[in-house]
Each structure stands twice: as structure tokens, then as C-alpha cells.
Amino acid sequence: MLTSATESNTAFARCGVQPRPGTYALLLSSATDQLSRVGRLGSLRLQQGYYVYIGSALGPGGVRGRLAHHMRPAERPHWHIDYLRAKTTLERVWFCYNRKSREHDWAKRFAAMTGASVPMAVFGSSDCGCEAHLFFFKGGDFPRLIGIISSARHSFKSARPAL
To answer: Model pTM greater than 0.85?
Structure first.
């Protein structure tokens, strides 16, 4: 198990993730139905299944730095996703490099997928007009979800470092 942010960053570097600006999607699994506090947004009742969170990393460290941050639950949560990461498992990430964020386009595409639901309005999108940047898919949808995302006509790259 990784024990530091440096180790997380190194793990993504080994997977070829570069410190360039870009957009990413986290695939998280939940095996519990517990209540999770999400900062000022309130509480979210987790469900057993899969969550997809869309974000962008345009600042220093780019995609590599942001994914390294999301690798482990945050000691002091900053973003909405930091609260959810404490109760979920990171299964896989998808990303692309671009100086312009694509997170709003990706959020619209995920929202339109069959089986997608928004578990909490404005999660990850309190600074934009999107309904949310977090989507839930029931457990049985996992293989289909992986296939749809991986075959999408976006320049997604995938990384799954050893946790």
C-alpha cells in the first residue's frame, strides 16, 4: 500500500501519466450503504455500486499531481471528492491532456449514459452550471461502463497503478 503523496505521484509516473494540464475521470467503487458527509453540501447516502467523478487539473502538477492526490483519502478534505474518497475504492482513472478543461463536456456525456444517476446535485460543480460532476452506476453495470468509457471517441488514456 502506498504511504505518501510522493509514492502516489511515482506510481502514476510509472504508468506514464505526465504532469501536464488535462481532464480526468475517477472510477470509484462502494461496497457500503453508509452516510458520508460532503463538506458544506451536506450528507450523501452511498450505495453499493460505482461512482464516476469528473475533474480537471490545469495547475501545477497537472494530471499526474491531481491523480496522485486522489490516490489516497485526504487527511484534510478540500474538494467534494476528497470526502467521498475516504469511503470508496479507486478502481481506475481515465484522462486526457489539454490546456482547456473538458470536464463539462465529459459530465454531460456521463449524465446521458444509460443507467447514470446524479447522487448529489452540484457535487464537484459548485463553480459551474453543470448539475453535478459525480455520477452513480449500479454494480451490475461495471463491465458495460468500462467498455463504454474505454471505447469512447475521446482521447482517453487509462491508468490503473498498483495500489
So the answer is: no
